[in-house]
Amino acid sequence: MQWTCNCDGFCTGMCRYIRMEELVTSLFKDFLDVEEESDQGKMFHPTFITTVRALKVEPLNKLMAELKSTVNNGDVV
Ligand SMILES: [Zn+2]
What we know:
The chain has one domain (14-73). The chain is elongated, with a radius of gyration of 16 Å. The chain has a two-stranded antiparallel sheet with strand order 1-2. It has helices spanning 14-32, 54-71; strands at residues 36-37, 43-44. It is 48% helix and 5% strand. With 77 residues, the protein is mostly helical. It contains two helices and two strands; from the N terminus they run H-E-E-H. Residues 5, 7, 11, 15 line the site of zinc ion (ZN).
């Protein structure tokens, strides 16, 4: 699915940031924050972003936390 700017005539580029915010919001709301209950009754996240590189785990977690806070107006959730 290709994104295209719908601005009429003069585009400041803001449309791209607005769309990016919608997409990142959806990434958390519709995927990463979704919890499901397993057959054993345990809650788990079926969709997650991770890395097998030990040195990258902490920086990735920090990045995701900051990304999430930016789409939640800085509120820690
Ligand atoms: Zn535009």
